[in-house]
Amino acid sequence: MTISTEASKPLPFSSALGSLIEATDAIKNFRAIALLALTFIGAVLVGGLLTMLAGSMSSVLLGFLGGLMAFLVMFYGSNAVGILLMRDAQGQPGLSLVDAVLVSLYTSHRLIAVVFLEFLIVLAAMIAIAIILFVCKIPVLGPVLYTLVFPLSAIVLGVLVFALFYVMLPLAGPAAWSGATVFQIIARLNLIVRTKLVSVILLEVLLFLITTFVALLIFGVVGTGVSLTSGMSAGILGLGGQMNMYSLASGLSSGSGYIIAAGLGGGLLMAAAAVVPGLIFTKGVCIIYLNATRNVDFSASEASLNDGLATVKKKAEEARERARALAEQAAAPAAPAAAPVDSLHCPSCKAPVASDDVFCGECAHKLK
Q1: For residue 240, is pLDDT > 50?
Q2: Which carries the bigger pLDDT value, residue 79 or residue 197?
Q3: How far apart are CA 357 and CA 345, in angstroms?
Q4: 190-224, pLDDT tens digit by residue?
Q5: Higher pLDDT, 151 or 345
Q6: Contact 280, 211 (CB under 8 A)
Q7: I need a surface site. Which of 48, 59, 144, 258 has the fewest CB within 10 A?
Q8: CB distance 40 to 126 below 8 Å
Q9: Cβ contacts of residue 197 below 8 Å, gap of 6+?
């Protein structure tokens, strides 16, 4: 996939707000609807069936495998939906469901790498601040230094956490769906954090409100229907007090046939109800990413990141070579000590003599 660029000027914030409303048009993308529905339903079926088997066999490993398989279905399926919606937001031709899934299987691992690197950055910052705080334990000078360290550390950690949870993590998906590599994603999100942090956060708050309103509306309808149907089922099917949320949630591993059927059917219903809010949120973050990157030159940021990585790699190589040289020097055999010049002995009495002696000083033996 290639990254689409816009030739128009960057949108003002008011226009970005208006474009965000277009996220509700995601419900018109029938391929995305079908794929996300299949993803949710597939995750529920895989996780539910393996959970049922784990409950009947009392196998913790099988239960863990069910959760893992459900996560993988959700992860790759939702990324495939994101790829479809990103192409829609970019105005590019759509992909077939099979092609979207194949692209997701090929590229979605980039998100795992990006998330891992982002948490490493935060962890490195916290370790650096912890070291500085240990320095602040110095008597007399420590409290004075802590006066500056405390507010600066609070600002650094606050900005990092906000950048991580409001920019880096939400927009990493759209960046990957647009075709960026791992280091391109890091460089671009880093530039967005430095230049458009506040506007991106405001747009995400608005997207959250839109998605929440739609979700409350849909789940209100579904919840009302589930409540009425559960009451009628309890009376007609003779289930009594079994038709409650706890019984339905735990009915996959134990319960009567009706409870198991209601648990699976209710899970499928909730998964289908989550399709529309999920589509709106996914297309919304795609729009936010495209607005934040519209007509922005990332070459300098990417080049800076590549230079930094090259410097780190060079330093690591130099350290490795130095360690190798020290190891070879330590393993080399020591050179034999030179024999002292005056180490001759008298052949008669074995007393030490000098090289220029004519007679031995002990026994008067003639040496020359």
Answers
A1: yes
A2: 79
A3: 11
A4: 888 888 888 888 888 888 888 899 889 888 888 78
A5: 151
A6: yes
A7: 144
A8: no
A9: 159, 162, 163, 166, 167
* Residue 181, C-beta contacts closer than 8 angstroms, at least 6 positions apart: 110
Per-residue pLDDT at 333: 59
Rounded CA-CA distance 52/63 in Å is 8
Number of neighbouring beta carbons within 10 Å of residue 215: 17
Token reading at 225: 């229907």
Residues 28-37, mean pLDDT to the nearest whole number: 85
User: d(Cα 181, Cα 175) in Å, to the nearest integer?
Assistant: 8
Bigger pLDDT: 96 vs 8: 96
For the entire predicted model, the pTM comes to 0.65
Distance from C-alpha of 293 to C-alpha of 345, rounded to nearest angstrom: 90
Distant-in-sequence contacts of 290-293, Cβ < 8 A, 24+ apart: 290/6, 290/89, 290/90, 290/174, 291/10, 291/11, 291/16, 291/19, 291/203, 292/171, 292/192, 292/196, 292/199, 292/200, 293/188, 293/192
Q: Would you say the C-alpha torsion 196, 186, 81, 215 has a positive or negative sign?
A: negative
For the stretch 131-143, pLDDT in tens is 988 888 888 888 8
**Closest alpha carbon to 33 in 94, 93, 111:** 94
Query: Distance (Å, rounded) from C-alpha 310 to C-alpha 250?
Result: 53
CA distances from 264 to 42, 47, 51, 54, 247 (A): 12, 10, 11, 15, 12
Q: How far apart (Å, rounded) are the C-alpha atoms in residues 141 and 143?
A: 6
253 pLDDT higher than 80: no
Mean pLDDT for the chain?
77
Distance of alpha carbon 203 from alpha carbon 286, whole angstroms: 12
Read off the tokens for 19.
Answer: 């474009």
**Token pair 């007509």 in the structure block, residue:** 295
d(C-alpha 259, C-alpha 256), whole Å:
5
SS3 of 179, please? coil
Give the β-pairing of 344-345 and 352-353: antiparallel
CA distance linking residue 145 with residue 139, whole number of Å = 10
- Reading the block at residue 202, the tokens are 């405001």
